[in-house]
Amino acid sequence: MLAYYFTPRDSRLTTYFLGLKLKTPIGLGAGFDKNAIYLRELEALGFSFVEIGTVTPLPQEGNPKPRLFRLPKDKALINRMGFNNDGVKVVAERLKKWRKRQSYSRLTTDDSRLIVGGNIGRNKTTPNEDAWKDYAICFNDLHPYVDYFVVNVSSPNTPGLRELQGKASLRRILLHLQMINNGKAVSKPILIKIAPDLAEQQIDDVIDIAMEIKLDGIVATNTTIRRDNLSKELGIGNQESGGLSGLPLKNRSTDIVRYISEKTDKELSVIASGGVFTGADAREKFDAGASLVQVWTGFIYEGPSVVKRIGRYLSKMTNQ
After folding, report:
1. Cα 253 to Cα 195: distance, rounded to the nearest angstrom
2. CA-to-CA distance for 73 and 102, rounded, in angstroms?
3. Can you tell me the distance from the alpha carbon of 273 to that of 118, in angstroms, rounded to the nearest whole number?
4. Domains along the chain?
5. Average pLDDT for residues 114-130, to the nearest whole number?
6. For the packed helices 279-288 and 306-318, what is the interaxial angle rounded to 10 degrees?
7. Contact 203, 260 (CB under 8 A)
């Protein structure tokens, strides 16, 4: 009953993305269901795809609490979770059992199933020179159970992680994953998630590598370390470290989506993440060149009907 109420029901919203068929182009970004525990519930709330993780090889507790802060006047969040997760072995086994249950369900078909993405990262204690090994471990263990991968080198909450967005480090990680992927019986799409704080030249470097090694796409963007768009009376915005998400990130995220789309002549697929609260926000991302949108902070502030409302707006726009 929940799925019937919350899921947008318009065949015109069906989206094809990197060989995958999605009921709608509306999904949930990484960081909410880190351990693949709530896939059934999130599907019932209308999400056509859910990105789990960030998953690391070894389990880790993440940063000390408190580590999540609401900024309601700005419709924003600050988090410094620190890749808290159960570790790839546990998550992979959980996904295996979930896939098995799905295969036995008469209600699930290839046309209606939930698409699951695997967002992968390195452990906090792994030095950057060995980071490629962590990504490879997660990639191999999750490969049978997820539909696509996102390489997270852009979270601000793991020390030194964003340095992996540099050309040499990035090429090493992505080339190795592509090599593994090409050796599988069935390859899976690989995307990279980038920070909104990159300068234009840094974005160009990421695009150059992605085009060079034939990466499938980019997720734009992760959270920001900037605080310049916050209400002045909110002292917490300046006091708490971590990544800022939500409405203050919307314009910067859209600008980067548009830049990637125009720079690559739409040869690289883009998933837009950052400031999606309404159907109009989603439409703005699609107009900028995105193929899919991810909700996260918008889900927190707009509530469980957010997917349905966005879907209704997009359906209405297709009639015009």
Report:
1. 9
2. 41
3. 15
4. 2-318 (3.20.20.70)
5. 98
6. 60
7. yes
Interaxial angle between packed helices 250-263 and 200-212, expressed in degrees from 0 to 180 and rounded to the nearest 10: 50
Whether residue 233 is predicted with pLDDT greater than 90 in this model: the reply is no
Output the furthest CA–CA distance in the chain (Å, rounded). 56
Helices 131-142 and 167-182 cross at an angle (nearest 10°) of 30
Q: Residues 197-226: pLDDT tens digits?
A: 999 999 999 999 999 999 999 999 999 999
Predicted pLDDT of residue 317: 86
20/25 Cα distance (integer angstroms): 11
Tokens of 270: 């883009």
- In the sheet that holds 68-71, the strands lie side by side as 68-71, 76-79, 243-246
Rounded to whole angstroms, the Cα distance separating 216 from 219 reads 10
Tokens of 247: 């409405």
**Could you tell me the sign of the dihedral formed by the alpha carbons of 181, 274, 290, 109, in that order?**
positive
Residue 106 has pLDDT above 50, yes or no: no
Question: How crowded is the C-beta side of 117, counted as CA atoms within 13 Å?
Answer: 31
Strand 269-273 vs strand 115-120: parallel, antiparallel, or unpaired? unpaired
pLDDT score for 7: 75
Residue 89: which pLDDT band, with cuts at 50, 70 and 90?
very high
Give the chain's count of helices (H) and strands (E): 11, 13
Backbone φ and ψ for 288, nearest 5 degrees, come out as -80, -10
Mean pLDDT of the chain: 94
Q: Please, are residues 297 and 274 in contact by the beta-carbon 8 Å criterion?
A: no
- For 10-44, the pLDDT digits (tens) are 899 999 999 999 999 999 999 999 999 999 999 99
CB 72 within 8 A of CB 34: no
Parallel/antiparallel/unpaired status of strands 20-22 and 15-17: antiparallel
Q: Which residues contact 267 (CB under 8 A, 6 or more apart)?
A: 211
What's the CA gap between 205 and 78, in Å, rounded? Answer: 28
Q: Which two tokens stand for residue 227?
A: 């605080």
**Active-site residue set:** 155
